[in-house]
Amino acid sequence: MDILLFLVMVVLGLVGSFFSGLLGIGGAIINYPLLLYVPAVLGAAYFSAHEVSSISMFQVFFASLAGVIAFRKKSNKGSAGVVHKGLVVYMGSSILAGSLIGGFVSGMLNGDMINLIYGILAVLAVILMLIPARGKDDQPAAELHFNKGVAIGSAFIVGIVSGIVGAGGAFILIPIMLTVLRIPTRTTIASSLAIVFISAIGGVIGKIGGGGIPLWPTVFTVIGSLIGAPLGSRVSAKINVKVLRYGLVVLIALTAVKVWSSIL
């Protein structure tokens, strides 16, 4: 076993999932550039865009699984938001279909195209995360109404592009739910967790079908993810997440510049 590779992948998985638990996202928007650049810089390994998207997809699956388990514990204590079942059914089934397609199609695309799609997603994520939420935080889930066509269509598109780059899609899905569908914040966070987990299932199946998954680096990253996600969730309750949110915007913006500079 290559000790350097083991340490690098575990740490990257831990860092990505820490921010995942901290900010309530799948973590792929952070993990993709980390996996693409850091192992190569440290001389541990060089991963293609296809391999990075596969590793990232498995990391998102286990990070979102850990998030679902943590949410169920909070629900039992009455401290979590309310999951809107209709929202999960409509958007979950649609994003599942999209992520299955995206995960399979990614194996047919060249690395530059996958990097290009990530670059576009990163720019969109920055824009969407800067738009203030328009949902009413005090609106009961039972009284919630949303445009089903927009919910299904947006989730399907998010599923396809997220499946290609190995993401769950939360970094785009959450802003869409808040600003376009006007879903209350607590309901958005609670429901998006279930939707992203469904998306990750489809993405993993698609990646397995597409092949080209580096086994041990993926296992090492997942190990780090299982450590980092719970830590991030604990820390998030003690600090101002809004400050971290804008810090994440800066991080994603810098990453987007790096990716676009390599493409152009």
What can you see in these coordinates?
With 264 residues, the chain is mostly helical. It has one domain. Helix content is 78%, strand content 0%. The chain has 10 helices and no strands. Helix 1 (3-23) packs parallel to helix 9 (215-236), helix 4 runs parallel beside helix 6 and helix 5 runs parallel beside helix 7. It starts with a helix and ends with a helix. It is a multi-pass membrane protein. Belongs to the 4-toluene sulfonate uptake permease (TSUP) (TC 2.A.102) family. The chain crosses the membrane at residues 30-48, 55-72, 87-109, 116-135, 155-181, 188-208, 214-231, 243-263.
SSE order and pairing:
Elements: H1 3-23, H2 28-42, H3 49-77, H4 85-105, H5 111-130, H6 148-165, H7 170-180, H8 185-210, H9 215-236, H10 241-263
**How does the major sheet shape up?**
none
Count of discrete structural domains: 1
Number of beta-strand segments: 0
Shape: globular
SSE order: HHHHHHHHHH
Chain-averaged pLDDT: 81
Structural class: mainly alpha
Number of H- or I-type helical stretches = 10
Distance from first to last alpha carbon: 37 Å
Radius of gyration (CA) equals 17 Å
Q: Give the strand content.
A: under 5%
Poorly predicted ranges: none
Helicity range: over 70%
Notable traits:
264 residues, mainly alpha, 78% helix, transmembrane, TSUP/Inactive_protease-like, TM_pro_TauE-like
Please provide a brief summary of the model.
It holds the Pfam family TauE. The protein is mainly alpha-helical and 264 residues long.
